[in-house]
Amino acid sequence: MKYKRILLKISGEALQNTAKGLNHDPDILANVADQFKQMLDQGAEIAVVVGGGNIFRGLAGAGKGTDRTTGDFMGMLATVINALALQSALENAGIHTRVMTAINMPAVAEPFIRRKAIRHLEKGRVVIFGAGTGNPYFTTDSAAALRASEIGADVLMKATKVDGVYTADPVTDPSATRFDQISYQDAIARQLKVMDAAAFSLCMENDIPIVVFNFFKQNGMVEVFNGDNSGTLVTH
Fold first, then answer.
1. Which of 1-10, 30-39, 58-67 has the lowest mean pLDDT?
2. Angle at Cα 20 formed by Cα 34 and Cα 59, nearest 5°?
3. What residues make up the domain containing 192?
4. CA 210 to mean position of chain CA atoms
5. CA neighbor of 27 nearest in space, from 19, 138, 7
6. Which of 7, 15, 38, 154 is the most exposed place for a label (fewest CB within 10 A)?
7. Which CATH number belongs to the domain containing residue 143 in this structure?
8. Alpha helices (H) along 100-139
């Protein structure tokens, strides 16, 4: 394995199947569990930050009349729903997990405590971070960069629907080209939309490489974990 302690950032939309009308597709969740098992068997320590866009997105709510701060808190609660769904799928596959949230809700999850999170990882438990940073105006990308820094992750794996970072959106621009590797500074200067500038900057300051990869590629996570040429590496 190339990395030991990883932080996976996964969007809420990646868990849904709009064709079937499902916010949480059991097949997608089962695939995540299968890949996690493969990595855990090799000695990985896995933490996850999950988004909430399949349920509610704060910015979208603000555009429809919801106060931005209120909308962001609603979005944080959506991430907790996704964290619990992911936890259930992993535990059904025999993987021990803990959900930790930035907003205290002791009936369903542990509060985020850095030392406790690290201890869970050392014991082989998958730790799922919900509720973002606990603060409005910060994205779950920023939460992923923050948690990766706090737990000392070896890499931040950013799951997307494309196989890396492109010069433009490859879905709408067929002339877009993919980077095998790009620096944090270039990613920020080019205003690439894979992650926000705050997340790029935080990873740069703490020297945490980011690998952007295709979440829907067969065993894509495992390939990144083992250092195969999958996705785009963002580093110094």
1. 58-67
2. 90
3. 5-235
4. 11
5. 19
6. 38
7. 3.40.1160.10
8. 114-122
